[in-house]
Amino acid sequence: MPDSLPLFDWPEMLPGWVWLVGAGPGDPGLLTLHGLNALRQADTIVHDALIDARLLDWVAPGAERIAMGKRGGVASPTQAEISARLVGLARAGRRVLRLKGGDPFVFGRGGEEAQALARAGVPFRIVPGISAGIGGLAHAGIPVTHASVNQAVTFVTGHDTEGLAPRLDWGAIARGSPVIVIYMGMRNLAEIAGRLIAAGRDPAEPVAIVASATMPGERVLETTLGTCAAEAEAAGIAAPAIVCVGQAVKLRQALDWQRLVAGRPLRDTDPLGTGEA
């Protein structure tokens, strides 16, 4: 680790090991120190498509970089191929860093990759990361929990392994979760919104779509459940994006700190009308 970092008993990456590391929601500054430690030690980095390329500037000199990201609508390696590559590299004695966007265990297929390593007898380490469904929304000024809004939040994926909207109990989710955070939901957003409305959610309920969260090109669309799919299409907002459904979206009017950085005032310090500090 660099001398400028605090003194700490940093773990050593040994030959034949695979570290599954969460790169965070996008901004390289949101990588953890353990993640940076891994980048400095690995001699092979197998990375996703959505990571910020600037992270690879921190790798050890001469380290091998292998892009194995999966993107919808683009020819990509299968999950089995990725897992097999990790096993093969480890068995060849490489120090392998599997760098994944967000957190490897939150809709990131990290659990499947770690299980494949376990079955192959390959030692591994898990380094958590900041998930986009929490950190990306926070960066946009949207808290996934707030005492005046919700005591529960549900995280769902917007598609299954075949690209279809997942076969979830949308009625239970609609009734039981004041705030719903949807990963990878842009392709099926109209269908998902329709299912939530059919299950009883108000078409006028606030929705925020955060595209390229935490990155310089971040875009935030504040809309409603009934119009979100059409408005996202009209605005040209596409994946990668996080969708948040619920009254928590209104709090962006008071918590959009990026307005303050830009020298602009907040829109409303009490958007929920609670009168609370």
Automatic annotation (TrEMBL):
<dbReference type="Pfam" id="PF00590">
    <property type="entry name" value="TP_methylase"/>
</dbReference>
<dbReference type="InterPro" id="IPR000878">
    <property type="entry name" value="4pyrrol_Mease"/>
</dbReference>
<comment type="pathway">
    <text>Porphyrin-containing compound metabolism; siroheme biosynthesis; precorrin-2 from uroporphyrinogen III: step 1/1.</text>
</comment>
<feature type="domain" description="Tetrapyrrole methylase">
    <location>
        <begin position="18"/>
        <end position="227"/>
    </location>
</feature>
<dbReference type="InterPro" id="IPR006366">
    <property type="entry name" value="CobA/CysG_C"/>
</dbReference>
<dbReference type="GO" id="GO:0032259">
    <property type="term" value="P:methylation"/>
</dbReference>
<dbReference type="InterPro" id="IPR035996">
    <property type="entry name" value="4pyrrol_Methylase_sf"/>
</dbReference>
<dbReference type="InterPro" id="IPR003043">
    <property type="entry name" value="Uropor_MeTrfase_CS"/>
</dbReference>
<comment type="pathway">
    <text>Cofactor biosynthesis; adenosylcobalamin biosynthesis; precorrin-2 from uroporphyrinogen III: step 1/1.</text>
</comment>
<keyword id="KW-0489">Methyltransferase</keyword>
<keyword id="KW-0169">Cobalamin biosynthesis</keyword>
<dbReference type="GO" id="GO:0009236">
    <property type="term" value="P:cobalamin biosynthetic process"/>
</dbReference>
<keyword id="KW-0808">Transferase</keyword>
<dbReference type="InterPro" id="IPR014777">
    <property type="entry name" value="4pyrrole_Mease_sub1"/>
</dbReference>
<dbReference type="InterPro" id="IPR050161">
    <property type="entry name" value="Siro_Cobalamin_biosynth"/>
</dbReference>
<keyword id="KW-0627">Porphyrin biosynthesis</keyword>
<comment type="similarity">
    <text>Belongs to the precorrin methyltransferase family.</text>
</comment>
<protein>
    <recommendedName>
        <fullName>uroporphyrinogen-III C-methyltransferase</fullName>
        <ecNumber>2.1.1.107</ecNumber>
    </recommendedName>
</protein>
<dbReference type="GO" id="GO:0004851">
    <property type="term" value="F:uroporphyrin-III C-methyltransferase activity"/>
</dbReference>
<dbReference type="GO" id="GO:0019354">
    <property type="term" value="P:siroheme biosynthetic process"/>
</dbReference>
<keyword id="KW-0949">S-adenosyl-L-methionine</keyword>
<dbReference type="InterPro" id="IPR014776">
    <property type="entry name" value="4pyrrole_Mease_sub2"/>
</dbReference>
